[in-house]
Amino acid sequence: MPPAKVVPARALLRHDAAHRLGLAAAGLAVVRTVLLVLVGLGTARFVNNVLSLMAANSWRLTPAATWNWPDEIAVVTGGSSGIGAGVVQRLAGRHMRVAVLDIQELPKEMQGNPLVYFYKCDITSPESVAEAADAVRRDIGHPSILINNAGITRPMPILKMPSDFLHKIFNVNCLSHWTLVQQFLPNMIHVNKGHVVTVASIASFVALAKAADYSATKAAAHAFHEALSTELRHLYKADGVLTSIAHPNFVRTPLVEDFANGLETGGIRLLTTDYVADEIAGQVFSKRGGQLVIPQNMTFLAGLRAWPTWMQTLVRDILGKMAMKL
């Protein structure tokens, strides 16, 4: 090849090599930036989770050390079926004594279990709750764990909601929390040890069409939990009494049996009672207070009310169309 043509070829190769190196350097810079952002987000998420855990436990990082399950006594409302029955079985499985307050008799698999005590109780009646509470304290002792689990629902538009059912659902899903806590919390405060678990719902965050009553009661239960947690810290100085709240999505229980098919047709995957009971019992066994959104990948809904109005409306419209199939 003549010398005159060799020099430009070499220059072209050098230019091409420099160009490739430049692209590689730019690519590495982008990768480095992305990695730094991911590390930053991961760190922020970790710090956020730690702070949230501490905030829910009077700014303690470690779990309480005073729990010994065979010595503990739990009260579970609505413990004869559904999620409540699953929680009862898991608590008793840790050799804990469990008092079930329900209008339904115990299921056969729990009858005869020496750790499970049944008290027929209408939790909408303060007199019935007081009578059952006295019996629990007399038969077993002072409970250290209260799980307000009982709940009812009946999908119905606002204009068709009977007044008697409206009062009933607020009594069961919401007002009973006050009645039960007034019975069992004083001793927890006295010994500065206890755990109150409120079973709410994803509906705490999202008002559902044809379920204004249910959504309102669960939002109220959420507010109850938050106020109770604050009162324990500042009014009663009882930082050893834990509070937790669970927000399950729709669960396949007798509660939703009549409209379960409509939910699934609308694209909603129903959770199993075992899955939800595992999560709630696991929260108790963690010896920590906190908030559970079940399943965890729906935690983003907890911040729905902080979203722009148009985004909130879109979410409610999507859920509303599903509700029309119920």
TrEMBL record:
Keyword Oxidoreductase attributed: yes
Protein localization: Membrane
Name of a matching Pfam family: adh_short
Name the UniProt record assigns to this protein: Short-chain dehydrogenase/reductase 3
Family affiliation: Belongs to the short-chain dehydrogenases/reductases (SDR) family.
Annotated InterPro entries: NAD(P)-bd_dom_sf (IPR036291), Sc_DH/Rdtase_CS (IPR020904), SDR_fam (IPR002347)
Listed GO MF terms: all-trans-retinol dehydrogenase (NADP+) activity
Keywords tagged on the record: Lipid metabolism, Membrane, NADP, Oxidoreductase, Transmembrane, Transmembrane helix
Organism: Hirsutella minnesotensis 3608
Job description of the protein: Catalyzes the reduction of all-trans-retinal to all-trans-retinol in the presence of NADPH.
GO cellular component: membrane
Chain ranges passing through the membrane: 21-44
Membrane topology classification: Multi-pass membrane protein
PANTHER family: PKSB, RETINOL DEHYDROGENASE 10
